[in-house]
Amino acid sequence: MNLRFARDTATVFSREFAPVPREALGLLFTMGQPLLFLFLFGPLLAGTPGFGGAGGGSPWQWFVPGILVMMCLSGPMMAGYNLLVELIGGSLERMMVTPLSRTAMLVGRTLKEFAILLAQAVLIIALAVPLGFRLHFAGVLAGLVLLAVAGIGLGTLSFALAIASRPGGELFYGVTQLVMFPLLLLSGMLLPMDFGPAWLQTAAAFNPVTYIVEAERALFAGRLTDASVLYGALCACAVAAAGLALGTRSMRRGV
Amino acid sequence: MIHARGLTRRFTVKRETVEAVRGIDLDVEAGRLVAVLGPNGAGKSTTLRMLTTLLPPTSGSATVAGRDIVADPAGVRARIGYVGQKNGAGENFRVRDELVTQGRCYGLTRAAADRRADEMLDLLELRPLAARKPGTLSGGQRRRLDIALGLVHRPGLLFLDEPTTGLDPQSRADVWEHILRLRAEYGTTILLTTHYLEEADAMAERVVVIDHGRIIADGTAARLKNDLAGDRVTVTVHDAADTARAAAVAARIAAPDGVSAEGVTVRLRVPRADAALPEYLRALEAARVKAATAETSRPTLDDVFLALTGRTLREGDGEGAAA
Prior knowledge:
The complex is a heterodimer.
Chain A: H1 2-17, H2 24-47, H3 59-88, H4 91-96, H5 102-128, H6 137-164, H7 170-185, H8 198-205, H9 208-220, H10 227-252
Helix pairs in contact in A: 1-5, 2-3, 2-5, 3-5, 3-6, 3-7, 3-9, 5-6, 6-7, 6-9, 6-10, 9-10
Chain B: E1 2-13, E2 16-28, E3 33-37, H1 44-51, E4 59-64, E5 67-68, H2 73-79, E6 80-83, H3 95-105, H4 110-123, H5 139-151, E7 157-161, H6 169-186, E8 189-194, H7 197-203, E9 206-211, E10 214-219, H8 221-229, E11 231-237, H9 243-253, E12 259-262, E13 265-270, H10 273-286, E14 291-297, H11 301-309, H12 313-316
Parallel strand pairs in B: 3-8, 3-9, 6-7, 7-8
Antiparallel strand pairs in B: 1-2, 1-4, 4-5, 9-10, 11-13, 11-14, 12-13
Helix pairs in contact in B: 3-4, 3-5, 4-5, 5-6, 8-11, 9-10
């Protein structure tokens, strides 16, 4: 069973991934987008007087994990969008009549987004190191694992949403637009929440992404045993469990 | 190959319960080519989606290829092929890649899936299109690709949901040629839905007519036509004043409810038109009614549907959602 699941996941992953290296232009955009944030937004942070990221080190140390979490939000959304397109066409239906595991269909697709995220992360880190980013290898590795778990959760949630949005898909576009920005802005991803008023900080405390961002910052700074890592990991696991349960359930109920 | 009992499916649409399929019993033996015919919204696709495990039935049971659709959907999936109404290949993927993926979905090794994909490209004459994306193919080519995707694992039972809808006549003939060849070469059992009467009539050994979620007729096309519709004899007379007399004569040959008269035209429904026509003409002559023209026609499946429901299948075309 587990072996079959791994094989099915690999099947879905390689199907989804095959077109990526062939689409040069798409690849350029995918890789260019985080760099835009790094180079057009990063210097603003670095030049902001009194900007004291947690730990007080280089602003890049603080900012790089934030961009990665942002990428981890948009990638799964893309995965949901792709699924929606295949739902509206007939290709998902065709695969649902094969013995391919439903969960593998979701996980394989999310893993493809994660592979892209991984490439983006390597690129960003490689470019940030000369700017003063200090590489804590074990922390970065643990941070990427955490992102993978959160990404699977967000991806499968977005799949469940895509399935619920049939046949038109309006619900999907509406909800992702509505949810994406509050999640992003209320997570302290781009600017520290410490700068905000108390109500904003309270709102941020209810945003699971906040904990993941904080955990990523701690990990990227090499503080592997920080309490925030535990909270972040719990949040990521909760999101993943909820996403997998909801996503698989929507697939089972008939598409 | 298929044994369904009391298969039922209800949907809730805007808080209203819609009974798409209301108790279908169906048995299909191995090696058959069965066409399920019915107007749009009759429950054809819903029935197919239940038999292929895409949709759990609200009630009832079915075994497909020896496996129970509810208890062992994975077992059913491994043994059947399915070609849905929509195109099965993803837009971002190349034709051959999709075929390889499909083989892998059925658990073939990479090498076996590669080989099978190439066989399918040859079988359905898709070889020159191997590296293309589906969006660049014609309607007929896309349909052939869909069939190739449904056959990659060489299923003993193939479901085709409206395989020729929306295709031009030449592509339809082409798709049919492939379906029939497949059957001849591999003995594949085929269950397909269609709302093209001519196709069901010409190609299928057995026609199952569905209306409002129920099977209302089941048999060979010839038997359905003989039993339920009968041949038609149409005679015109010179003078409209003779029509009533001609109709009265007709009632001696055909059943009273099988005679209709309008203007100078009298129509008879009879079991065998070739035998009834000379008899009728002789009787008219004896009654001193002069016939102007006479013709006979074999019934169509549309006449069968009309006889069963009082509606024609063609009226239903294009109205209502596909179900």
